[in-house]
Amino acid sequence: MIRLEHIHRYFQVGEQTVHALNDINVTIEKGEYVSVMGPSGSGKSTLLNVIALLDQPSSGRYLLNDQPVTQLDDDELAKIRRENIGFVFQFFHLIPRLSAAENIEMPMILAGVAVKERKQRVQEALASVSLQDRADHRPDQLSGGQLQRVAIARAMIMRPEILLADEPTGNLDSKSGKEIIELLEGLNRQGVTLMIITHDQNLGDRARRKIRIVDGQIG
Which keywords does this chain's UniProt record carry (predicted)? Predict the structure, then answer.
């Protein structure tokens, strides 16, 4: 499903070239549960951004479902992100003025999904994360755990086959964090490919496969 071949990503900082990723070769099969671990600045987030099609590698080849994606234009990349990849972030990234239901609905509005189907899928999504009674609440009226549940529902509303989670429990207390991980792992058991980026050893160890990255290289 995901295949990275000799991926490099470097940035020019003044006269210095910074190698964020250095000859990354990795394959992630459909339905896998993978954690990517490493210290701060190791290249974890850069790797996530490349896999998520939010950033382009400086060189190398990325194949998603056997399709080379490194040379696609912005519209083609946006379509793949919208339909195939869900994102969960440490800081939730919800729209403050929208309710939980409206935040979940937003990707479908952007994708042109019909109103009737949007409403039905939002209700199903709220139920899947046990937030039916918080549908009309704005983000500032929700707890951290509830915010992340909304973010997960939004990430999955387009029914992507890949879910990328960047430090998904980083802003949560231990109880809420455990509930969120169990929710993510439940999605993986349903067949979603799950990749979690973390520096938390305990969280990373839960994955069935672990990838460690240090100084831009997979160890």
Answer: ATP-binding, Hydrolase, Nucleotide-binding, Transport
Give the count of beta carbons closer than 10 Å to the beta carbon of residue 161. 16
Closest CA to 197 of 172, 168, 166: 166
- DSSP states of the chain: -EEEEEEEEEEEETTEEEEEEEEEEEEE-TT-EEEEE--TTSSHHHHHHHHTTSS--SEEEEEETTEE-TT--HHHHHHHHHHHEEEEETT----TTS-HHHHHHHHHHHHT--HHHHHHHHHHHHHHTT-GGGTT--GGGS-HHHHHHHHHHHHHTT--SEEEEESTTTTS-HHHHHHHHHHHHHHHHTT-EEEEEES-HHHHTTSSEEEEEETTEE-
Q: How confident is the model at residue 213 (pLDDT cuts 50, 70, 90)?
A: very high
Model confidence, pTM:
0.90
Distance CA 49, CA 210 (A): 18
Whether domain 2-218 has CATH 3.40.50.300 = yes
Tens of pLDDT, residues 72-110: 888 899 889 988 999 998 888 899 999 999 999 999 998
- 52's tokens: 């998520």
| Bridge partners of residue 193, in order along the sequence | 162
Q: Which residues pair with 217 in a beta bridge?
A: 214
The single-letter DSSP state of residue 49 is: H
**How far is Cα 14 from Cα 118, in angstroms, rounded to an integer?**
48
Q: What are phi and psi of 166, to 5 degrees?
A: -105, 105
